[in-house]
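QA checklist item 7 of 12: single-chain prediction sanity check.
[x] sequence parsed
[x] length recorded as 416
[x] structure emitted
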Amino acid sequence: MIHALVAGGGIGGLATALALARGGHRVTVLERQDAFTDIGAGIQIAPNGFHALNRLGVGRDVRDRAVLVDELRLMDATTGRELVALPVGGRYRQRFGDPYAVVHRRDLHTPLLTACRALDTVALVAGAGVRRFDQDGRGVTAVTADGRSFTGDLLVGADGIRSTVRAQLLGDGPPRPCGHTIYRTLVPMERVPRWLRRNAVTLWAGPGRHVVHYPVAGGSCLNLAAVIDDGATEAVSGRPAERAAVLARFADAGPVPVALLRLGDDWRRWVLCDRDPVDVWTRGRVTLTGDAAHPMLQYAAQGACQALEDAVVLGDLLTDAPTADVPHLLERYNAARRERTGRVQRLSREMGARLYHPAGEDARARDALLRPLDEDALHHRVAWLHSAPARAATGPPPGPDGARKGRAPDPAVWTP
């Protein structure tokens, strides 16, 4: 039995712990916060995410808490015209085997946490943020900020975009602010006019900004987010924002987006960050998952789904494995995931620039690209992204460090 250490008790860390425990191993999860909680607002789960959740045994619990939406809509914020709608109902669910859903983050985090707590082989340690690690050929020791040491056969850094495990493992500096600021809030649904209620993810695209909204918490709240391309260079996370300041920044965002934003009161802001894709995020007995490995902008709505996929692939490869095989199997995990996650990272960047924020001739080119796409064409275009990836039991060894090359996928492969 392998003893795995997991740095981070968020969605990716708990999914990793659950996958490894179900594969016959003992897991210690080290969470920097004093409690295992997840903050934030809405999150989108495509069928590939549900496939992973099903494999982890919590798919039904998450679906019971989720809102299963009927369509993903891209609107012109200035004219109010619908640019394209991707139906995600009957035919979509039949093709991909699972629904497209939206949840509050806690409605994804809680089932994972409950499942981990139900297993004797998972130890959850709060107030234990990993500061550094040491490894040799036999094991790895994680040292926490308060000086405690935990020793295991491998360490998984699932500690987010500002991962301390990644900082020591790769030494590639802080994440890259992309120049976009996002403001988020939740609005009780009874305050939302009926004409703005819809069982859909709706995104209002305008020059240099967009607004997105959808129901969460069983339909009792509207998740509302507004993004502006303001050239922000300072990383900000969850800082309170004045309502008047939000409304002023989006005063010319279009009639419907402005009406939506007026509903919000308790706003918080983030500056969006990501990193260039890399080939290697594994060394010896230490590896990374989720945002620690491949942080991506939210524009493809795949951050959580890719972290869940990571967990399942890693769990599959390590099932019943002896401790001596850990370094080799971690390399195979890295090799199995790097191409797909790098592609999603590049797509996420392209979508923000070419689908959600263009103006003038660029916006007209976007509209012409989307106009001919019918339901079948849209389903075909998202198939590579929303389908569950093939199980990766084999794979070539990782290549050298460095940013991944190659053209980004066509952002007409659209998901809000």
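[x] summary fact logged: Confidence is low (pLDDT under 50) at residues 392-409, 412-416.
[ ] second reviewer sign-off
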